[in-house]
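Duplicate of #3305? Posting structure anyway:
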C-alpha cells in the first residue's frame, strides 16, 4: 500500500512539474523583472513630468501674456494715430473721413473705430449704427477724459448689438491740450481668445484673461464658455480669484489644495498698461494622469502577463492538437447530420492540419453545390407546374391552391370572397379564322390585361383552361366584384383585337361573377360552380356582358345558386 501511495504522489509531482509548468515558470521569471522595471521608470517619469509641465506652462503663459500685450498695444497705437489726426485736422468732417478709411484689415481684433465728442456722443464711426450713441455715462469714457491717457474698459455688452466686448479709449486732449473728442475702439473678444489658443487643449490646465472686476474676457477655445462669467463663480478658480485680482505685483504664483482634493499651481500676470490679468492654473493630478494611468496599466499588465503565461502554457498543447481534432470531428458530425454549410476554419488550424481541413472543405463544397442544384431544379419544376407559360398567369393547379388558401383565410376572418370566370367569346371561330399562332397571341394579350387588373385590385388571375380565365378577389363583395368584371370586360374591348366572325368585330369576353362569405356549410367548389353558372347565363344573354350569381348554404347542407341578374 505504501508503494502504491508513493507512486501516486510521483505521478502527481510529474504532472505538476511537466513541460507546461516549467515553461510557465520560466516565462514568469523572464517577464516579471522587465515589468517591475517599467513600473519604476514610470514613477520617475511622473515626477519629472509634473516639474516640466509647471515650467513649460509658466513659459507659455508668459508668451500668451506678451501676445495679449501686443494686441492691446496695437489698439493703443491705432487710437493714438487717430487722436493725432483729429487734433491736427481741426475739424470733425476731415477726421471722420480719415477714420472711416483707416480701419486696418491686418488687425482683426479691432471691430470698430469711433470718435466721440466731449459730450460723449458718437460723431462718426466705421460702423454707422454707432453714430449718435451717448457714451458719457461709461466709466472708461470718463476715465479717458480725466486721466488724459489710454484706457481699457472692463467686460461690457455693446449697446447696439448686445455683444460682449471691451472698449479702448484715448483722448484727443493728449495731443491738443484741449478737452475735446475721445477716440475709441471696440475690441473683438473672440480674437483675444484666439491669441490664447496655445494654452488650450491640455488636460488639467485652465487659463483665462480677466478684467479688474474679475470677469473673464478671453479663454482658449476649449474653455470659451467661461467668457463673460465672474472668476469667483468658476470651479477651482474661486479660491485664488481675490488674491490674483487684488495683488499689487505684476506677476505671482501660488500653490494650494482645491476643494475637490486636487493639488493646483496658479500663475497670474498683469497685462501692462491695463488692469487685466492672465491667470493660469495647473491641476497636477490631471497633468500626471496619463503617467498614473500607465502605472496602473503596468501593474495590470504584470498580473495579466503572469496569468496569461501560466494559462498559455497549460492550454498550448490542447490548442495545437486537441482543439483542431475536435473542430474537424465536429465538422464531420455536422456533415453527417446534413449541415452542408459546415466548414473548417483553416486560419485557426496549425499548418499540419491545413491539408486535412482543405480536403474536408472541398468535400462539403461539392455536396453543398449539388444540393443547391437540386433545390433550384425542384423550384423550377414547382414554378413550371403552377404557371401557364402562354399567358404568364397561374394555371389551374396554381389557381386551385390559391383558392383553397383564400377560402380558409376568408372563413377565418369572416370576410367576402369573389370569383370572376372569364371566357373569350367565339374563340374557336377566332382560331379557325386567324390560326393558332394568332390565337395564342390573343390569349397572351388577355393574360397581360388580367394581370394588370389583378395587381390593381389585389386579386389573383389565372388561366383556368383553354380560352377560360378566372380572377379571384379576396375581401370583395358581389357589387364590387361586378364593377371589377365590367372593368375587365372594358379592358378587353380596349385591346381592339380584330375578330371578323364576331358580331362585335373585335375580341370580347363574357364574365360570370359569384361572391360569398365562406363558412362550414360551403366548399370552394361551390364558388366555382356559381361563377360557372353565371358565365353560362352571360353566354346566353348575347355574350360581351357580366352576370352575377349569389351563393348561400341551406339547412340541408346543399348549395343553392340563385340567379341575381
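Output from current build:
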Amino acid at each position: 500500500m505504501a508503494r502504491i501511495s508513493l507512486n501516486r504522489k510521483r505521478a502527481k509531482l510529474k504532472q505538476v512539474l511537466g513541460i507546461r509548468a516549467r515553461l510557465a515558470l520560466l516565462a514568469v521569471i523572464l517577464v516579471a523583472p522587465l515589468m517591475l522595471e517599467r513600473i519604476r521608470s514610470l514613477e520617475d517619469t511622473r515626477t519629472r513630468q509634473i516639474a516640466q509641465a509647471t515650467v513649460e506652462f509658466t513659459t507659455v503663459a508668459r508668451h500668451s501674456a506678451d501676445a495679449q500685450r501686443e494686441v492691446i498695444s496695437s489698439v493703443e497705437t491705432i487710437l493714438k494715430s487717430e487722436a493725432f489726426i483729429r487734433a491736427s485736422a481741426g475739424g470733425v468732417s476731415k477726421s471722420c473721413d480719415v477714420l472711416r478709411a483707416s480701419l486696418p484689415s491686418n488687425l482683426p481684433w479691432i471691430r470698430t473705430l469711433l470718435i466721440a465728442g466731449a459730450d460723449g456722443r458718437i460723431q462718426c464711426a466705421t460702423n454707422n449704427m454707432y453714430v449718435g450713441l451717448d457714451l458719457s455715462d461709461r466709466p472708461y469714457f470718463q476715465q479717458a477724459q480725466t486721466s488724459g491717457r489710454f484706457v481699457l474698459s472692463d467686460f461690457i455688452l455693446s449697446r447696439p448689438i448686445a455683444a460682449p466686448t471691451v472698449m479702448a479709449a484715448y483722448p484727443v486732449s493728449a495731443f491738443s491740450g484741449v478737452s475735446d473728442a475721445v477716440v475709441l475702439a471696440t475690441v473683438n473678444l473672440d480674437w483675444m481668445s484666439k491669441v490664447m489658443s496655445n494654452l488650450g487643449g491640455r488636460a488639467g490646465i485652465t487659463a483665462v484673461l480677466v478684467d479688474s472686476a474679475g470677469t473673464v474676457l478671453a479663454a482658449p477655445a476649449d474653455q470659451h464658455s467661461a467668457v463673460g462669467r465672474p472668476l469667483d463663480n468658476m470651479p477651482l478658480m474661486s479660491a485664488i480669484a481675490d488674491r490674483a485680482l487684488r495683488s499689487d505685483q505684476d506677476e505671482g504664483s501660488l500653490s494650494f489644495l482645491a476643494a475637490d482634493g486636487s493639488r493646483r499651481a496658479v500663475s497670474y500676470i498683469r497685462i501692462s498698461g491695463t488692469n487685466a490679468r492672465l491667470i493660469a492654473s495647473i491641476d497636477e493630478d490631471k497633468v500626471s494622469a496619463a503617467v498614473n494611468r500607465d502605472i496602473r496599466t503596468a501593474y495590470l499588465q504584470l498580473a495579466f502577463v503572469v496569468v496569461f503565461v501560466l494559462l498559455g502554457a497549460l492550454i498550448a498543447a490542447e490548442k495545437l492538437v486537441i482543439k483542431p481534432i475536435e473542430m474537424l470531428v465536429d465538422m464531420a458530425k455536422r456533415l453527417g447530420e446534413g449541415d452542408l454549410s459546415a466548414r473548417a476554419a483553416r486560419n485557426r488550424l496549425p499548418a499540419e492540419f491545413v491539408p486535412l481541413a482543405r480536403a474536408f472543405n472541398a468535400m462539403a463544397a461539392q455536396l453543398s453545390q449539388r444540393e443547391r442544384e437540386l433545390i433550384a431544379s425542384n423550384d423550377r419544376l414547382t414554378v413550371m407546374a403552377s404557371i401557364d407559360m402562354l399567358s404568364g398567369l397561374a394555371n389551374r393547379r396554381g389557381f386551385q391552391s390559391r383558392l383553397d388558401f383564400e377560402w380558409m383565410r376568408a372563413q377565418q376572418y369572416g370576410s367576402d370572397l369573389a370569383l370572376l370566370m372569364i371566357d373569350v367569346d367565339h374563340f374557336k371561330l377566332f382560331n379557325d379564322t386567324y390560326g393558332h399562332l394568332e390565337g395564342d397571341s390573343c390569349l397572351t394579350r388577355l393574360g397581360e390585361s388580367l394581370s394588370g387588373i389583378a395587381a390593381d385590385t389585389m386579386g389573383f388571375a389565372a388561366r383556368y383552361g383553354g380560352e377560360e380565365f378566372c380572377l379571384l378577389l379576396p375581401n370583395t363583395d358581389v357589387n364590387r366584384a361586378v364593377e371589377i368584371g365590367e372593368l375587365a370586360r372594358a379592358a378587353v374591348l380596349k385591346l381592339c383585337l380584330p375578330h371578323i366572325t364576331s358580331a362585335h368585330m373585335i375580341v370580347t369576353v363574357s364574365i360570370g361573377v359569384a361572391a360569398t362569405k365562406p363558412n362550414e356549410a360551403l366548399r370552394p367548389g361551390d364558388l366555382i360552380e356559381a361563377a360557372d353558372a353565371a358565365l353560362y347565363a352571360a353566354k346566353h344573354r348575347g355574350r360581351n356582358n357580366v352576370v352575377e350569381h349569389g351563393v348561400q348554404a341551406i339547412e340541408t347542407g346543399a348549395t343553392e345558386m340563385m340567379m341575381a341578374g
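Confirmed duplicate; merging threads. Residues 19-89 form the longest helix (71 residues). The chain has four domains: 66-185, 191-287, 338-383, 386-548.
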